[in-house]
Amino acid sequence: MNGLQQKGGVVDMRGISKDEMEKGKVLYSDKDHKFIWLGWSYKKSGEFQANQFLIVDGDEGVLLDPGGVHVFPHVITTVSRYIPLDKIKYLFYSHQDPDVSSGIGLFMNVCPNVKILISRLWLRFVPHFGFTDVNRIETIPDKGMDFNLSRTTLKIIPAHFLHSEGNFSLYDPRAKILFSGDIGASVMPDEDLYFEVENFEKHTRYMEWFHRRYMKGNDVLRKWVSIVRRFEINIIAPQHGAIMSGENVKKFLNWLENLRCGGDIIDEIYGT
Ligand SMILES: [Fe+2]
Ligand SMILES: [Fe+2]
To answer: What is the CATH number of the domain that holds 263?
Structure first.
């Protein structure tokens, strides 16, 4: 199986079939709109596992945090099952990290009509990934923005300092799915892998370290929670680890609102 054979043999993930792990899973579908998880591209080579997502709306698509160089072959093969590459209109980058954006030059080469959506803060850094045509980059203002696909308007929501200085989430109002980037990321061990959170209280053990160390502080967490609570959300889909749905969406927002992290625990981080 793609990715899973690289090292360490086959990995079982609860809540998903082996076929879906390879070919992706549709999280929402109606007659002209789909929100798709693009399968399991984890190589077990010491990297942080990352999810990639695709929204297909009419005959257009947007890729969410399409990822780095080593997941590119898997991601592009899976995308091609759902939409021709010349119909991808945007690559949305929640922020500038390598697990999100280091494959940028490869994706721009094979998606001839695509434009990049990324924070204005990262415009001058993108060329360092080897892609220099800034005319194909649309910068996102700090307050976020809406953008259109064929039939649906998607909302880019500010998520600054969570963890990057120029950072965004993306809300799909038709699927009622919030792509949250690194917010909600979890790192599960191979012996306890699952596609969707089953027991939220237990799941916090796989989220806690990452959020405490990478997120800037409780003040910005609360700001983000206050914004996303305005939206009707059926699923939170993070860039790493398990998705959350139903009651777990509410539980997650409550957990986040009360988490001390970053600057709140600076003495603990410094060890002083
Ligand atoms: Fe990140
Ligand atoms: Fe990430």
So the answer is: 3.60.15.10
pLDDT score, position 116: 97
Within-domain flag for 8: no
Q: What confidence tier does 215 reach under pLDDT thresholds 50, 70, 90? A: very high
Q: Which helix (H) or strand (E) holds 172?
A: strand 168-172
Q: Which ligand is nearest to the CA of 161?
A: 1
* Domain range for 181: 18-270
In a domain, 225, yes or no: yes
Query: Which secondary structure element, helix H or strand E, spans residue 50, and what is its range?
Result: none
Gap from CA of 51 to ligand 2 centroid (Å): 9
> In angstroms, what is the span from residue 58 Cα to ligand 1's centroid?
30
Ligand 2 geometric centre to CA of 116 (Å): 18
The token pair at 183 is 């917010």
Q: Please indicate, yes or no, if residue 138 is contained in any of the structural domains.
A: yes
Taking residues 100-125, report their average pLDDT: 96
Query: Which ligand places an atom closest to the C-alpha of 47?
Result: 2
Categorize the per-residue pLDDT at 11 as very low, low, confident or very high, splitting at 50, 70 and 90.
low
* Global pTM value: 0.95
CA 232 to ligand 1 centroid distance, Å: 25
178 and 170 in contact (C-beta within 8 Å)? Answer: yes
Domain count, the chain: 1
